[in-house]
Prior knowledge:
Layout: H1 2-18, H2 41-59, E1 64-65, H3 68-82, H4 84-87, E2 91-95, E3 102-104, E4 109-113, H5 114-119, H6 123-138, H7 141-166, H8 169-206, H9 214-232, H10 252-262, H11 274-281, H12 285-293, H13 298-308, H14 315-328, H15 331-347, H16 352-363, H17 368-381, H18 388-395
Parallel strand pairs: 2-4
Antiparallel strand pairs: 1-2, 3-4
Amino acid sequence: MKRRLSLAALATIAAASASAAPRAVVAPPPPPYAGAYQPQGTDEIGMWRDADEDERRLANAPLVLRDEALNGYVRETLCSAVGADRCKAARIYILRTPVFNATMSPNGTMRVFTGLLLRMRSEAELAAVLGHEFGHFERRHSLAGFKAQRSGSDLLSWAGVLTAMSGSYQAQSSFNSVQMSIYGGLYRYQRDNEREADLLGLGYLNASTLRPQAAAQVWRNVMAEAEASASARGLKKPRFDAIAFTASHPPDAERAAYLGDLAAPDGAARDDGAARYREAMARWMPLFLDDQIKLNDFGASEHIITSLAADGWTAPLWLARGDLYRVRGNPRDLVAAGEFYANAAALDPALPEAQRGLGLSLLKTARPAEGRAALGRYLALRPDAPDAAMITMLTKGEN
């Protein structure tokens, strides 16, 4: 019953948005916390055992960032969204993976990717995503999805047997129709689960002290990044309002629209924790940006860097932008990179990487004397650099 009410609420929102009608509903507060949940039945117990084995391997994985302060901050943000009681059910692992994603396993294992942390602009935005994932966990969508897939595959297996026994063209045509119907139903089921998790996630956020309107902003940011990426590649503007047959999530434009409607109007004046978020991530942003640049997606990386600089350019941001342009390596890019590195060095003369990038850029833009001088400053700032031998050769003109 709760699930049907959730989907009905979302249908009401969609209809209201299409007709430009006044706000219809907002996400209701979450149901009372029922306490620690234990798996029920053979299927769920088996899934939890598999998840437990995955977590044992995950606990020792080299990609896990084990910084106590970073992990503590992400946990506090989750607790701010879903409440202290619910938060106890989650164990958070931050993975150094430059992808916009977070997941939660049936046993309470939450994986947060560093690509997600790079793209968030406030505590409220992070809370919205973590609350969404916790909504999947609380509604036990993994189990429901597993059962739906098993039922669908069982039906297809029997249909395949009967089709083979018949051997007629009509039977094969009917089987193809059944197959498409089942696959379409499974994808639609996944999208409905995503919408339900969105609804519950906004319910958490509406009941918190954070600004719930941040949830819609997450998807506006996602769309802006996708447009920047496509533009840099010379591709057509992406469609954000269309649903592909195999889509497992609702369209981004749809999510941005209904998440905006689900947010409590009186929450718009709340704190979004942007300053706290910047402070918590400041140490890690250079690493996250470096991983992003290595994805070789110039448009997306440029969009992320300039978005981070909306509140003012810092030496690490100028450095990252210099690296981005130098990696692409067009002659005009190298000139721009030299300018960006110089800006970074001006803001932080003690930043070794800025001098290194500046020197390498200048050497390739017919300014060898200035380039060697910058590389000399790099070695003076970091005499134990792993590339010290190579850089020393370049300072002597052996390039």
